Amino acid sequence: MIIDKDTLGILSRAIERLDQGFSNLPEIAAGQNDAALAAMERVLLEAAARMQDNYPYMHPYYAGQMLKPPHPVARLAYSLALFINPNNHALDGGIASSAMEKECVAEIARMFGFESHLGHLTSGGTMANLEAIWVASQLRPGKLIVASKQAHYTHSRITGVLGVPYAGVEVDDKGCMDLQHLEQLLIHGQDGKQVGTVVVTLGTTSIGSVDPLPEILALRKKYDFRIHIDSAYGGYFKLVDNLDADAAAAYAAIDQADSIVVDPHKHGLQPYGCGCVIFKDPACGALYKHDSPYTYFSSDQLHLGEISLECSRAGASAVALWATQQLLPLVRGGEFAQGLSKSRQAAIAFYKRLSEDRRFVAPLMPQLDIVVYAVKARSASTSSRLAKEVFEAAAAQNLHLALAGLPRSLFARSQFEGGDFDWDQENITCLRSCLMKPEHLSYLDEVWLLLGKATDLCLAEVNV
User: Fold this and answer.
1) CATH architecture for segment(s) 95-291+298-327
2) Whose C-alpha in 18, 216, 251, 288 is 20 to 30 A from the C-alpha of 443?
3) For the chain, what are the domain ranges?
4) Strand partners, 147
5) Are 151 and 210 a contacting pair, CB within 8 Å?
6) Cis omega before residue 273 (within 30°)?
């Protein structure tokens, strides 16, 4: 069995309990008649057949993009909430789910070490980062927003949408923000604009690199700027106990940031879309001030729409996250944290195998659970071509990887540098594995076997 069906009985019983809460109301239309039920079943079965045209995202053989299946309790809670379909913009639309959202966000804020906070869920990391950058631009008007060149492309796009000046910071040979280039920007600015906010990425989506937050905090003491943490992918690794020293130091200092973004729909075991933005200073809420002629009169309590750029938002996301955090609290050493530790352990073990295998070049020790590696060849173009061929050959065996283009600078410590390797192009297309499921650790032998078969097949064709 690949799809979890054992939990459907729990959903049925939960729906019965939900229905009891409205037993004081007169009944509305009777249940669906036989013809309507038959029509719905026909359409739903057709949808199920159409949905078979997907990669097996839920299976450990899928190690490509950052796709992690929701926890069963999140799926069930989300489905349960849909029978009410709450809207967490105003309390009128989602009384219970708004309270659940506030509880969830408070627990995430505590995980990051914020003693006070202002925050809410969003439709995803893009919207969460947009809000954080919008707030930063309001507090530091006309100032530069800077992020590393390995940061997510959404930052340059968001600043373009907001009309805010933006600059990319060079990265070092580990893919982390280069401190020398950052300080030059802090001193000289760019195009007459001084830096107002530094976006620090804890877990880049390309290679999983962690920017040096402690050193950037030291620079903040010399130069006045805000720090926004984009940990949409990597935020939950705050709970992990097997990070390297640099990453551990960065996460230990995360509570000194001005704002943080994390995506529960990545490592937080949630359905799409569920992002979260948190500000350390609750006074940021004043920036959202707006008037509505009808929305916020049902209660004197804070309506989440009063501190959000988005209007309608799915209350079901909050219910699913609340249920997951009730079952799996965000504590170090807990079941949730142990799952992340296994993903990290799988990445380290996979990197070790790659480093010891003459077929591959693994240029970067993974800092989280993303591993990138090139196929050993005599030139950058040949290595890139072979990576694409291995990608396709692996997929034919149901092992699904991803491809990522890495610049030459990230291979400075690898076997590609020196010797007779021909850098006939400045970038190499690499294979990329996101080992973000805890099950990847126990499936590592099988994944390695399939990768080896696919690679040997492609290399054999080259040698013929």
Assistant:
1) 3-Layer(aba) Sandwich (3.40)
2) 251
3) 95-291+298-327, 335-463
4) 168, 199
5) no
6) yes
Radius of gyration of the chain (CA): 24
Closest-CA residue to 433 (of 392, 382, 373): 373
Cβ-Cβ contacts under 8 Å for 99 (sequence gap 6 or more) = none
Please list the alpha-helical segments (H only) found in 53-124.
Answer: 72-82, 95-112
Q: pTM of the entire structure?
A: 0.94
Beta strands in 154-250 (DSSP E): 166-169, 195-201, 226-230
Type of residue found at 144: L
Mean of per-residue pLDDT scores for the chain: 93
CB 271 within 8 A of CB 68: no
| 370-375 vs 427-434, strand pairing mode | antiparallel
Could you list the beta-strand ranges (E) of 238-369: 259-262, 275-279, 360-361
Q: What is the pLDDT of residue 418?
A: 57
Q: What distances in angstroms separate CA 371 from CA 88, 203, 241, 351, 361, one per listed residue?
A: 37, 12, 19, 7, 11
Give the pLDDT score at 306: 77
Whether the per-residue pLDDT at 91 is higher than 90: the answer is: no
Rounded Cα gap, residues 398 and 404, in angstroms? 19
